[in-house]
Specification:
By secondary structure, this protein is α+β, with helices and mostly antiparallel strands. It is about 35% helix and about 30% strand. It has five helices and seven strands, in the order αααββββααβββ.
Length: about 180
């Protein structure tokens, strides 16, 4: 209802409804901003580890909303980018390769923000908690690793830092049971 001074009067019942809706939106917004990544939440809910396969890695990056190009059945490239300024374009390229012996995931990052994709990958439901912690340890150690035993895998990890980028390469080879 519009009053004579141009102010709208909200009836008491409508006011309560509007306050309730605003409170609900604030609560939802608070939950969204503090929410864990979807993959980490799934991992905690399930309590189990999904198989570490090329297909699961591809599905995880697709659900994260990255654009993908399938080069062949065993190699997919994901990418994301944005203009930081009129002269600078920050981007991330992720290449997932499936060979007969291992699965290799390569991250080409041009901005620290893009490191979130590495975190999303390492927090995915196909790594156990201890495997995730050891993989983060590899990244933070600032050293390369060859055949590092991490849970169910032997992991090769390499880091290059050309002038305007950072390249991280993980190669996961399943540990075979000895007969």
């Amino acid at each position: 209802m519009l009053l004579s001074d141009g102010v709208t009067y909200i009836y008491p019942m409508r006011r309560e409804i509007i306050i309730g809706l605003v409170a609900t939106l604030i609560a939802i917004g608070g939950n969204v901003s503090s929410a864990e990544p979807e993959t980490a939440r799934r991992k905690l809910q399930m309590g189990t580890v999904e198989p570490f396969t090329y297909e699961n890695i591809i599905a995880n990056f697709r659900t994260a909303g990255l654009r993908a190009i399938e080069l062949q059945k065993r190699c997919t490239i994901f990418f994301e980018g944005k203009w930081k300024s009129s002269n600078v374009y920050d981007y991330c390229v992720i290449m997932v390769e499936n060979s007969d012996q291992d699965v290799q995931v390569t991250f080409y990052l041009t901005d620290a923000h893009e490191m979130n994709w590495v975190t999303e990958f390492l927090d995915a439901p196909y790594f156990s908690r201890s495997e995730t912690q050891k993989l983060f340890g590899l990244i933070n150690s600032k050293r390369d690793a060859r055949r590092e035993p991490i849970g169910r895998y032997r992991v090769d990890f390499h880091r290059w830092q050309p002038r305007h980028a950072e390249i991280l390469v993980f190669s996961f080879t399943p540990v075979r049971a000895r007969l």
